[in-house]
Specification:
Blueprint lengths: L2 H14 L3 E6 L18 E8 L2 H7 L9 H17 L2 E3 L10 H8 L20 E9 L23 H4 L5 E2 L2 E2 L1 H10 L4 H5 L2 H5 L10 H11 L34
Antiparallel strand pairs: 1-2, 2-4, 3-4, 5-6
Helix pairs in contact: 1-3
Length: about 260
């Protein structure tokens, strides 16, 4: 099987599992990419993620849905099996410390992505409704087409509705304030944010076709307000596309609500 054929197989297998190949790159020394398990250096990294509702619907019918961290467990199984079959190593945002710099890898794999006021690497097609779930590391240098730079939607957004939609005032031009967000959610456990997801995120006009199901959004919000003692893994942070800067107690470069 040629390298392009292998990449096509990986794309198809990911798609069947509700996942997407989000791009890749040939690591540099400063990318923070680990070696393979046998010590060989990684020469190709493929980034895996999801967008919209597909992954949630695949997850809902899986055995992992009843486990404490279903997204983590499902992606570990799927990517672990895929890596074993193609001689790769699978790594995940919840591994650490030290934590892998998934946000930095995302900006290498999808050039042009930048954080929005929500803290998310806003995608011109998916908007804020996407996440990074893991990466596949290869010892060989796979041929990767240079991706066209993505246009950052925030630069042409005049109204910036995300800045005024948050009832806690947690989303500002200066950045996202975790404590304000969590305090409101804990005070209003049956409020609209808890039931249907972040109102500021919903206010974003980009990627409307990929908005999460209400059940998925509620799952992430419940995870976000889980007591600190139960928050042992990154999935328990609410999803901001797996690309938001995390609170100091959480691994960096991963989203807050997935």
């Amino acid at each position: 099987m040629t390298a392009p054929e292998a990449l096509a197989v990986i794309r198809r297998r990911l798609a069947r599992a509700g996942l997407l190949l989000r791009g890749g790159f040939h690591p540099r020394a400063d990318d923070g990419v680990p070696h393979l398990a046998d010590g060989r250096p990684t020469r190709t990294l493929l980034l895996v993620g999801n967008a919209g509702r597909t992954l949630w619907r695949r997850l809902a019918g899986s055995p992992e849905m009843t486990r404490p961290h279903p997204f983590d467990a499902y992606c570990r199984r799927v990517l672990g099996e895929l890596a074993a079959g193609c001689g790769a190593r699978a790594v995940f945002p919840d591994e650490g410390p030290p934590w892998y710099p998934f946000q930095r890898w995302a900006m290498r794999a999808e050039p042009g992505l930048r954080p929005s006021p929500l803290g998310i690497l806003l995608h011109p097609r998916f908007g804020p409704w996407h996440a990074y779930r893991g990466a596949l590391l290869f010892a060989g240098r796979l041929p990767l087409a240079a991706p066209p730079p993505l246009a950052w939607p925030c630069v042409v957004c005049r109204d910036r509705p995300c800045l005024t939609a948050c009832p806690a005032g947690a989303v500002t031009a200066e950045g996202y304030h975790v404590a304000r967000c969590r305090a409101l959610l804990e005070r209003l456990p049956d409020g609209p944010c808890m039931r249907g997801g972040c109102l500021a995120r919903h206010a974003c006009p980009v990627g409307r076709a990929f908005v999460y199901d209400a059940a998925q959004a509620a799952h992430h919000m419940r995870a976000f307000v889980t007591p600190e003692r139960d928050r042992a893994r990154p999935e328990s942070e609410p999803d901001r596309g797996d690309s938001a800067p995390r609170p100091p107690r959480c691994p960096p470069n991963r989203a807050r609500r997935d």
